[in-house]
Amino acid sequence: MNETVQISNEKPEQPETKESIKEPVIDILGRRIDTKAMNYAPTNELGVIFLAGHLWDRLGISHIEQMNGNSFPDAIGVTANKTDNKDILLYKRIKIEFEYVSSNFKLHGHPIDQCDIIICWINDWKDCPIRVIDLKNIVKGYYQKKSERMEHADSIDEALNALSHGSSYIDGFKKFEEDWEKLKMRIV
Length: 188
Known about the structure:
Elements: H1 45-54, H2 56-59, E1 63-67, E2 75-82, E3 89-101, H3 104-107, E4 117-122, E5 131-134, H4 135-151, H5 156-164, H6 168-187
Parallel strand pairs: 3-4, 4-5
Antiparallel strand pairs: 1-2, 2-3
């Protein structure tokens, strides 16, 4: 049994692995939005998730009960619903899918009947059959209103209150101002 063996100098083709694929590093920033959470608008789904996490209270979502990683839907959230009795709140679980643009929901082939809300940066899906929360408009509306309140402020106190909504930081600043005035009077 004589077998002929061929020897080649060519390296066998290796299948691409996650380690062998190098993604280019690109520094892309969205438009300037200057929120407490982000200075620049999200440019992908992960940015949408991060920003949404800082805006739950403004989105009508009490909290997130579970993040689902790579499965659908992305998250299970909880909303608090008022009842006729002011002392009673009813909580409801909601299925949330995050997308950079709302039409990606369709593109990814997600079932509409298994999701309650799409949270996105840009809502480009006209007549979407489920609720869409467009973070771009939420951020624009909230920070634009804050900016307008500052422009119409008659004093530094009103401007600082417009910025912080009366946080303890402002109280500390006012205390500092009072102490400074007392110190100035003692020096003179």
